[in-house]
Amino acid sequence: MNNPLPDNLSALSGLSYAKGHGTGNDFVLIADPDGLKDIEPQTVAALCHRHLGVGADGLIRAVHSEHLPEGRELLAAAPEAEWFMDYRNADGSVSEMCGNGVRVFVHFLLAEGLAELAAGESLTIGTRAGVKIIRRSANGYAVDMGPWEFIFPAEAAAGAMDSTVSAGGLEVPRPALSVSMGNPHTVVALAGLEELAATELFAAPAVDPVPANGTNVEFVVPAEPLVADGAGHISMRVHERGVGETQSCGTGACAAAAAIRYWAGDGAPDDWQVGVPGGTVRVRFLPAADGREHVELSGPAVLVFRGIVA
Ligand SMILES: N[C@@H](CCC[C@H](N)C(=O)O)C(=O)O
Q1: Is 249 among the residues known to form the active site?
Q2: Pocket test for ligand 1, best of 59, 248, 251, 281 (most atoms within 8 A of CB)
Q3: ipTM of model over 0.90
């Protein structure tokens, strides 16, 4: 069998990296403050390969915003966004945003001594989905993710569902709702935990219509009762664009909570606990200074080890 790994990884020989995760969504993190590393998609795929590389759901490069065109654009409006999270999926594709990743990114910056974040203060990070503001929270870090949006607003307004999703283990296509958190998501509600466990996510679910740049797909089961101790509770599995099934997806948890809250209608809570295979994240819907409702995601961030590419 053809093994493309050695040549692709040799481009990174000697590179120091850290490995970290947020509720099991795992990342290779590298510091490249001056934006000197030109990382090809094949190199990312080799590094993230579960058997032939370090193994991860994605690569996160910490680069000064001024060294990326996307970062320079953000700096005009938010000069405090010194650091930019350059996020790549395990297959090498670029993503706009990663909710678990941005917490781990900040944890990495602090551990490397590249930034400071005292309790009660916040740090502004540049991403391809705009700036994200992060503070410490009881469960780790809380991120102001900005507002959520329907991807197909006219269709969603007309019928509360705008697409269908088919996956192994599900006998018929299921109605779904596509939600943007800066990156695309399609949320499907299933009947119960047995159906959630039986859904096969080895292959990408078929979504119709697919959002313009592809989509991440969240399979969600509302708890019974849905609301306990003032918070909504849901269980979720996810198939990520550019990766496959992952243990968690932060932007996916936000999209799932937004969709279930929308379907639940008036009186649905603003506070949500989203259980994923790798743990639990919290999602809150809060009024923001810009007059819009923002989504706040919070959860843990862990660094596991550091290494050097051979
Ligand atoms: N796991 C991430 C999302 C990573 C990007 C995603 N696969 C995409 O292509 O949009 C998260 O925690 O949000």
Answers
A1: yes
A2: 251
A3: yes
